[in-house]
Design a protein that fits this description.
Helix content: 25-40%
Largest sheet: 6 strands, mixed
Number of strands: 6
Strand order of the largest sheet: 1-2-3-4-5-6
Strand content: 15-25%
Number of helices: 4
Structural class: alpha/beta
Shape: globular
Order of helices and strands: EEEHEHEHEH
Length: 138
């Protein structure tokens, strides 16, 4: 799928990519994630959850270099993350590091969110997986 960048986080390490439908939000992580980046991603996700109730999310970790310590402890981001369990149908991550991949796949078993991981070279397959059900609310 041909995608373009439609917005970027303040530090530029995360960008929002176009998606084929409004209830699918896609982010690409390109560098080290900062607290400002996490807050920006959270605001985009929060807005999508309010507009569509149910959404799908795709994270592409094209060049993930970790995250700043403060990024994990952001109050707003953590509140969005907690609420997202009720609003995200499918959570797909491409290029996750090995430990993160295991945690994502385990969370898919424990939470009411369908979680799936793909290797970086399988990005097209991830997009195709999300296209199987055209709308998150169905």
């Amino acid at each position: 799928m041909e995608t373009q960048i439609i917005a970027g986080a303040p530090e530029g390490s995360v960008v929002q990519r176009t998606s084929p439908r409004p209830d699918l939000i896609a982010f690409e992580i390109r560098h080290k994630v900062t607290k400002d980046d996490i807050e920006w991603m959270s605001s985009v996700t929060d807005r999508a959850m309010k507009e569509h109730d149910k959404i799908d999310m795709l994270i592409i970790m094209s060049n993930y270099e970790g995250s700043e310590l403060g990024a994990s402890f952001d109050g707003y981001a953590n509140s969005v993350k907690a609420r997202s369990v009720a609003h995200i149908n499918r959570y797909v991550v491409v290029g996750a590091p090995t430990l993160a991949k295991a945690m994502i796949n385990l969370s898919g078993l424990l939470l009411p969110v369908e979680a799936k991981t793909f290797d970086l070279e399988e990005e097209a397959a991830a997009w195709a997986f999300l296209a199987d059900k055209p709308f998150a609310s169905t």
